[in-house]
Amino acid sequence: MLLLLAFSCAPESSESPANAFLAAEAQTGVPHELLLALAAAETGVQRVEGVEEFPGQSAGWGVMGLRDDVIEKAAKLAGVDVEVVRRNDDANVLAAASLLAGYAELGGIDTNDLSGWAPVVAQYSGIRDEEGRREYVWYEVYEQLGKGVEVEGYRSEPRIDLPAYPPPTRTASRTGDGSTVWTPSPNYNSRSGAGVDYVIIHACEGSYSGCWSWLTDSSSSVSSHYVVNTDGSEVRQLVDEDQRAWHISASYDCTLNGNQDCGTNGQSMNTISVGIEHAGYTSQTSWDKGLLARSAAIACGVTQRHGVPIDSYHIVGHGQLQPWNRADPGSGWPWTSYLDQVRSACGSSGSSGSSGSSGSSGSSGSSGSSGSSSSSSSLPTSRSFVIDSNNAANDTSAYWIEISSAWFSSARTSGYYNTGYWAAPTEGVSDPAHFRFETDAERCYTVEAWWPAASDRPSAITWVGWDENDHEVGRATVNQQTNGGKWNSLGRWTFPAGSNQIMLSRWAGTGKYAVADAVRLTPC
User: Fold this and answer.
1) What is the CATH architecture assignment of 17-155?
2) Cα–chain-centroid distance for residue 38?
3) Is the pLDDT at 12 greater than 50, yes or no?
4) Nearest 5°: phi and psi at 67?
5) What architecture is domain 180-345?
């Protein structure tokens, strides 16, 4: 299904998503079935927004996953501005088709023979490793051609055309599970006796074959323990769990993780974690059920082998612990149901309080819990705690965020906390973001806020502290165009026992976007 993200600066796309592929075929001669299969392999036919996951690998854009190293050439061939290609579905598909047609002309292929397009598909993949290119052609694109691709009511005709390209050579399974393929990466070293305390969830920012082949390239200097394909039907294991894979460039900082395990501060996360990469993108809005189930089964196995707690403090996103330049797996990752699946795979059920709600998932309406049934024993009022925009990181029995449907989730601007943030256009309306929490007694807190700064933020936006009787306890006006990517003090505010909140107003001059990212409260 084609899921469209909101870009205020982008033109509208075709009324039917399939029209973009049919129109591109008419203009370039590239079969629309092939274009759809490529889109399915690259992005799941979702518009994605380019970010970097691996140093040295350029970011992908749009439903075709056009990467920065070719997008300008593709845009020029299509006669479309490169920024429009990044943001608009019709332009993105046309640019990709124009690039493919150019490759086909240079290669002298028979464009009427779908099998003959295989070398062009391999070139489009951008994969350097020959085995990776073969896997991409055979199992990601041409296998998809044989199934057909459905896009909002339109389904391409299944085409059983064997690619005119050498078939891949599958390596023997390491684990005895025929759908787990052992593909060793040279990019690892010793844990030096350290144990595994965390599972880190990643998004590859690209296709499955592109991901594992990059992680096994000695020149990339990156790796992961596992890579899950788009539907969970196959997993690559690249590094043994008792070895240190190179998947996260961060040392542990408990302030980024609910002030848990602060004695671990300063430890390299690579040394104390197992990494699971997933074919896909941080900016995609949904993940395949099969991928999630298979990933949960892998995570369960890691927790059982190493004694890792199954909660949102020990199974965490890459972006949560490296927020200055990473955001994966993104706001579309369903943390609550995912942790439940991990527990189920391990033979238990139910959500722990720390798993919370899906938070910045892109869904509209209120998120979070009412908190009315929470007990005082779960309240974090005697210690510092963070109310995140993603309720998966909150203990929703004690603190959570609520927003209206006017707020939308995003991870477009770097410098956000955890997995992303909520944003809404500024205007003269009373529609704040509510960072709610319970207190068991009257307490003074130092209140801080975090946001990603940008020029389209308001230069003056107001935060207000309220108690359950609608009495104001504090107020601060901030400039969200500056001081991004760090904690900013709002003041020392005293809240009574009961239900309290800190609200971010949208009331400001039009043309900007208020950002609700995270609030931290520390006892005075």
Assistant:
1) Orthogonal Bundle (1.10)
2) 21
3) no
4) -90, 155
5) 3-Layer(aba) Sandwich (3.40)
